[in-house]
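RETRY 2/3 - previous attempt timed out on the joint model. Re-submitting the same 583-residue input unchanged.
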Amino acid sequence: MKGRGVLTGVHFMHGDHACAEGAIAAGCRFFAGYPITPSTEIAERIAQRFPEVGGVFIQMEDEIASIVAVIGASAAGVRAMTATSGPGFSLMMESVGLAVMMEIPCVIVDVQRGSPSTGLPTLPGQGDVMQARWGSHGDYEIAAYAPWSPQEMFDLTILAFNVADRFRIPVMVMADEVVGHMVERVVIPPEDQIPRWERKRPRYPAGNGFKPFLVEDEDLVPPIVHAGEGYRVHFTGLTHDERGYPDMSAEAHHRLVTRLVEKVRRNASQMIRYDTYALDDAKIAVISYGCTARSARRAVADARRMGIPAGLLRLISLWPFPVDVVRELARQVDVFIVAEMNLGQMICEVERHVCQPVKGVFHAGGAMIPPDPILQAIREVAFHGTRVGGGKASAG
Amino acid sequence: MRKEIRIAGFGGQGVVLAGYILGKAFAVYEGLEAVMTQSYGPEARGGSSSSNVVVSDEPIDYPFVLEPDVLVLLSQEAYTRFRPTAKPDALVIIEEDLVHPWPEDRPLRIPATRLAEELGRRIVANMVVLGFLTAVSGLVKRESVEKAIETTLAPRLVPLNLKAFATGYEYAGTLTAVSPSAGFLKR
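RETRY 2/3 succeeded.
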């Protein structure tokens, strides 16, 4: 059994399988899910591999039960994950808030397909990126990552577990059908090179007076106690005090929710990931993510060959959004272009942080946006000046 | 150098496995960049199926095949659907017992299923085709594909599949003139 946890080597691997291998390499040993295209291959691979590493795989009756089982397993101290697509992601939303409120780390993979509703089960979309941020009720903050390759399906799944554990939050991996179903080279490093951020563990012994939600650190993250370790703990979705007991006062609610939000905002720099291409001297900044960023990179390269000073900012973390990076970029470029496989979601986030015109290249989903419409948008702003409508461009 | 390869037929012919092994040969054993995507109908067997491999010496941005440089067609339906998508000077290979090409088309032909049956298992026709493709395209080294076969399949399946691969590879040598099909089909 030992040694099969990390399949060190060079592989030609399916994106969904790379996600599953990332989870296993990260030490995930509990998976509860309900099969749904195009995420099913993650569950299949986990179900096939978990017996080799001593993990528990459960096919649940639905996605609501899946996420709650994951929260339960994580509360018992196991790295736990589920994987789904749009319809299942919607069903999980209520309990994303439960995980936020109880500060239980968990990883939710959404291999996005054409949506809303049943939409296009076998075809790609990027329409769930705002749902990842705002889908549960109330004020909260989470982290979400958008892989653009099978390699990143592996890498970012590991990062998702680390961020979830370190900060006690749910973390989403917002993949898409293109990246999930694509086969490409995946390099899996030796086991000792897999990064591992541990959960903070309690500093005080069990007993009277122990407070499981006592915050003593600047990062606002309380150490986590696991079920079965001898501590008396009370987990609830109700507003609670440091003991974990319900406290129905406005003061307690404001204090708790503010801390849960501030916990992510204050530590955002440790969660934010992005990549740049040809951006140093760019006057036109293209912002994109996931599979669409592959086409955006091609469009930027083609624009450069035409002498147009375009560059690419690829969002790897959608949430937290890299506000400082975008604001800094706004000092340099004349215009922004946002390319995404929805009808304008992350563009809203860009628009609220910059004063320049922001042009959108959108498609409702069903097929990856090819490089051409992005290049066309770059050419338009390059040759017709920057006086383009702010993000009101039509679908391709 | 970006080359696009599409292998198409019906479900059960192993076109996805053939594409996977070819892509693995490029990406793992030749140090090139390669992406494989696939598409198939809802049927377990008999529906349309295709695998698409893009290979390049630089990172591949757009992962899908638009205009194949190499097109392998193992069913009449695949031929009708995909023959017009090939580049004008594309290398086109057909399963000669299953595809009747248009009169003006002159693709390379291989009786892959028949050759596989002679080896005892028609299921290895995909490896026969892969061997033929390897020999006539010059895109990939024989050893790279053989290594990909060895590291992908269960050990008990490797000898027969390598034999099928060799059969296809050597069949290419028996053709009197290997002339890639001319690009006279107007698109």
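The interface with chain B takes residues 10-12, 178, 181-185, 291, 294-295, 297-298, 301, 368, 370-371 of chain A (CB under 8 Å). Closing ticket.
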